[in-house]
Amino acid sequence: MRPPANLDRCRSFIHCQISAPSTDAPETAKPRKLAVTISRLAGSGAWLVAEHLAQFLEKHAPAEGCHWTVFDKELVEKVLEDHNLPRKLAEFMPEDRVSAVQDMMQEILGLHPPSWTLAHQTIETILKLGELGHVILIGRGANIVTAKLPHVLHVRLVGSLEKRIARVQERLKLDRKAAAELIDRADRGRQRYLKEHFQASIDDPLDYDLTFNTDRLACEDVALLIGQAALIRRNSAA
Questions:
Q1: Non-local CB neighbours of 39 within 8 Å, separated by 6+ positions
Q2: Beta bridge partners of residue 116, listed in sequence order
Q3: Which whole-number Å values give the CA distances from 148 to 35, 68, 77, 144, 175, in the listed order?
Q4: What does the alpha-carbon distance between residue 28 and residue 59 come to, in Å, rounded to a whole number?
Q5: CA quadruple 180, 169, 143, 75: dihedral, nearest 10
Q6: Nearest 5°: phi and psi at 156?
Q7: How far apart are CA 170 and CA 91, in angstroms?
Q8: pLDDT in tens, the chain (238 residues)
Q9: CB 194 within 8 A of CB 201
Q10: Which residues sit opposite 155 in a β-bridge?
Q11: What pTM was estimated for this model as a whole?
Q12: Options 3.40.50.300, 3.90.1150.10, 3.40.50.10380, 3.40.50.2300; which CATH number does 33-237 get?
C-alpha cells in the first residue's frame, strides 16, 4: 500500500525532532510551521498525492535538518513500537505549547479517558506531530485532531467507485470483486472510526479546507494545488 522506505523516513523524522534543538538561532530565523492532513476515500490515490506533496514542500517550505515526512495510522503505530513517542515529542516543544496541546487532548478525549489505548496514543501522537509541523498526516481523523492548529491545512480526496476500483486493482493486482470489497471495508471502517472516537462524519465538508476529485486531476496536479494552498495557509497563520 505504501513505499517500504517510508518507515525509515518516519524514524529519521522522529530522531530529528527529538534531538536537542539549537538554542542559538533567533526566533525570527525559525521557519514558520506548516502541516497537511489528508482524508480520503479508499483508492483515491492518497499516498501518491502525499509523496508528490512532500517533494513539493521539501522544495518550497524546507526546514533545516528535518525532511517533510508522510505518516499514516500504520506508520504512527510502527514508530510507537520503537519510541515512547508522545512523551519524547512533548519534550521537544516549548512549555507553553505543551500546555496548549494538553488542553486540546482533554477536549478531544475528555479529562479522564477510560484507558490509554493504542487509539488514544495514536491521537495524541498525531496532535503532537501536527504541532511540530513538516508532516503530512493521512487518515485517522487527523483533520479533527488538529482542527485548532492554525498552521495545518485539511484536504479530502474523493473519486468515483469505478475509478477507485481500477486504481486498487492495478496497484494490488486484485480482481474487480476483491478490490471492490477492500474499498468497501476501508471506507466503512474509516467512517466508524470517526464516529466512534470523535462523533464526527467523515463526509462533513466543513471539516476540510479543500476537496479534490482525483478522477478529474492527476495526483501530481492535486499535490501541486495542495502545496500552493499550504503555503498560503502558512503565511496567513503567521
A1: 139, 142, 143, 154, 155, 156, 157, 190, 202, 207, 208
A2: none
A3: 12, 21, 23, 8, 42
A4: 20
A5: 120
A6: -120, 130
A7: 43
A8: 455 456 677 767 777 766 645 444 444 445 678 999 999 999 999 999 999 999 999 999 987 678 899 988 777 777 666 655 555 554 544 444 545 555 555 556 554 444 446 677 778 888 888 988 899 999 989 999 999 999 999 999 999 999 999 999 999 999 999 999 999 999 999 999 898 888 899 999 999 999 999 999 999 999 999 999 999 988 876 5
A9: yes
A10: 38, 210
A11: 0.79
A12: 3.40.50.300
Distance (Å, whole) CA 103 – CA 89? 16
**Taking Cα atoms as reference points, which of 150, 143, 149 lies closest to residue 104?**
149
Dist CA 137 CA 71 (whole Å): 5
Angstrom distance (rounded) from CA 143 to CA 149: 10
Cell numbers found for residue 81: 513500537
